[in-house]
Design a protein that fits this description.
By secondary structure, the chain is α/β, with parallel strands linked by helices. It has four domains: about 5-135, 3-Layer(aba) Sandwich (Rossmann fold), CATH 3.40.50.2300; about 145-295, Reverse transcriptase/Diguanylate cyclase domain (Alpha-Beta Plaits); about 305-410; about 470-520, Arc Repressor Mutant, subunit A, CATH 1.10.10. About 60% of the residues lie in helices and about 10% in strands. This is Stage 0 sporulation protein A homolog. One of its GO terms (molecular function) is DNA-binding transcription factor activity.
Length: about 525
């Protein structure tokens, strides 16, 4: 990949020195032109599109700083190196604000030029690769764009996508404004007239909102459960008014909606925080009633009566639930009830909300299957059961029955998916076992599984641990290379994924029964 270079200097001798004094082609550059003024340079740039411009700062009519300013306005992807004398150096520092990449002092040191040019070449290559990747993503979004975007946003709000992937796809979908600031509206629907299926109801609501889209917002359907709408940075102050508009529009079309509103957040982490807060706000409807708008601040006003409840080990509870560890789930329910009991808060409204809070978090683990808590248990049954709770003791049997329904659902799914996860892991390992960075963690991430779960089902299905399987594959490949090549032992060790040839030797003897040297002698 050659980087196109333009040289700008009003002195011909300087241009010749720069062009011929440095072996541009040897380092991946191509000097496509040299001009004597800023005006000529701009004309050249419009048609030839260089990627790197070296310009003298001191030129008549249009100096290097003016040229840099014009280049920045014309194409921000063009990199500029400013050539300056010692007397002009302090003055040239202002050029940093104009996007000038670096400076060269006269007389030009060719070693310094090489160092700066190679540094910029690396940046240009990375930028090209990123632009190409984004362009490929844009091209791949075809007739299935809505489905692809919906799937991405579903994973994004639950942090089931990496930050790097999130940034690339948000850029490709022209939704990067979410990273600068966002607020989440979580819209739960209920038909005024009975008899309409959930899928039809949500589809009708999405079509209704799509007829008159709200500028500065991004919306999608979350697992056929709720409509999620993000107000981006330009509309954060309007989130309350937008919620009221949506609530009224749905009401006019005979749809009852309860809308939870989060606070404002920024960045990749902020998107998931906003979504989680909107879910918390919705959970307060068990006390405040449905067919209304509920803010996260209202939810917190109820919950702040008992700050000690936050000490509950949510991470361990959700891990145990999703991985089918029944005894730990039961123990967690018992702990939760005790935390509520020890809070000594007597208001029945608070008691019901704490139960709904636990149910809401437990229900969120079903999302990856495309099932909601209301679908599994039954929306009317769920809310009626919670509304009937009057004492702490009544919390326990309801939670045990409901949470174990979720636990059993996870177990039934994992029984069916075990083979699929293992097969995907085997396929990934077979393609990447020579990568020294390969580990249980990287494989689990690649197949979108939990490390502990993958380790357990892999050993059950494959009859050996994942690490043992990787070692076996590496030794088999090592034997193949020993039989078919003249590579040194340390070279073979590196090629099959070992960072240490000594460790390769130890593993080889353990699996083959003889040392590498003895094997080669045979």
């Amino acid at each position: 990949m050659e980087i196109k270079v333009l040289i700008v200097d009003d002195e011909k001798l300087e241009r010749v020195l720069i062009k011929r004094g440095f072996p541009w082609e040897d380092y991946g550059f191509s000097v496509i032109g040299e001009v004597s003024s800023g005006t000529e340079a701009l004309e050249f740039i419009k048609y030839r599109k260089p990627e790197l411009v070296l310009t003298d700062i001191n030129m008549p009519h249009m100096d290097g700083l003016e040229l840099a300013e014009h280049i920045s306005a014309l194409d921000e992807s063009i990199h500029v190196i400013m050539i300056t004398g010692y007397r002009e150096f302090e003055y040239a520092r202002r050029a940093v604000k104009l996007g000038v990449e670096d400076f060269l002092l006269k007389p030009i040191d060719m070693n310094e030029l090489m160092e700066i040019a190679l540094k910029i070449r690396g940046k240009i290559i990375k930028e090209k690769a990123r632009r190409k990747e984004v362009e490929m993503l844009k091209q791949s979004v075809s007739a299935d764009q809505d489905i692809i975007m919906e799937s991405f946003f579903q994973r994004l709000v639950e942090k089931r996508t990496s930050e790097e992937e999130a940034e690339k796809k948000l850029l490709a979908y022209d939704c990067e404004a979410m990273l600068k600031g966002c607020c989440c509206l979580n819209i739960h629907l209920k038909e005024e007239r009975s008899g309409e299926a959930d899928g039809s109801l949500h589809k009708r609501a999405m079509e209704l909102l799509g007829r008159d889209p709200i500028d500065g917002t991004i919306s999608f359907l979350h697992y056929m459960k709720n409509i999620i709408l993000f107000c981006t940075v330009r509309r954060l102050k309007d989130s309350g008014e937008i919620a009221r508009q949506i609530h009224q529009r749905l009401k006019e079309n005979h749809m009852v909606s309860t809308i939870g509103i989060s606070r404002s957040h920024e960045g990749y982490e902020g998107i998931a925080k906003a979504f989680a807060e909107s879910e918390h706000a919705l959970s307060a409807s068990v006390l405040l009633g449905d067919n209304r708008i509920i803010t996260y601040e209202e939810y917190m006003h109820i919950m702040e009566k008992n700050p000690d409840k936050l000490a509950f080990d949510w991470e361990d509870f959700l891990f145990s639930l999703t991985n089918g560890i029944s005894d730990r789930v039961s123990a967690a329910i018992e702990d939760y009830v005790e935390v509520v009991r020890n809070s000594r808060v007597t208001e029945v409204e608070y008691l019901r909300l704490t139960v709904m809070d636990l149910m809401s978090k437990a229900g969120s683990t079903l999302n990856k299957y495309g099932v909601s808590l209301e679908q599994l248990i039954g929306e009317d049954r769920l809310y009626e059961s919670i509304q009937s709770i009057q004492t702490v003791e009544e919390c326990r049997p309801f939670l045990e029955e409901s949470i174990h329904m979720i636990l059993n659902y996870h177990n039934s799914k994992k029984a069916k998916q075990g083979n699929k996860v293992v097969n995907e892991a085997l396929e990934y390992i077979d393609k990447n076992f020579c990568d020294p960075a390969l580990s249980l963690k990287t494989v689990a991430s690649a197949v979108f599984s939990n490390e502990s779960y993958l380790s357990r089902v892999f050993k059950k299905e494959a009859g050996q641990s994942l690490i043992e399987y990787v070692l076996k594959k590496r030794i088999e490949e090592g034997i193949r290379l020993l039989n078919t090549t003249d590579f040194k032992v340390y070279e073979i060790a590196e090629k099959v994924g070992f960072r240490d040839s000594h460790y390769f030797g130890i593993c080889f003897k353990k699996h083959v029964g003889v040392t590498v040297k003895e094997y080669k002698q045979r």
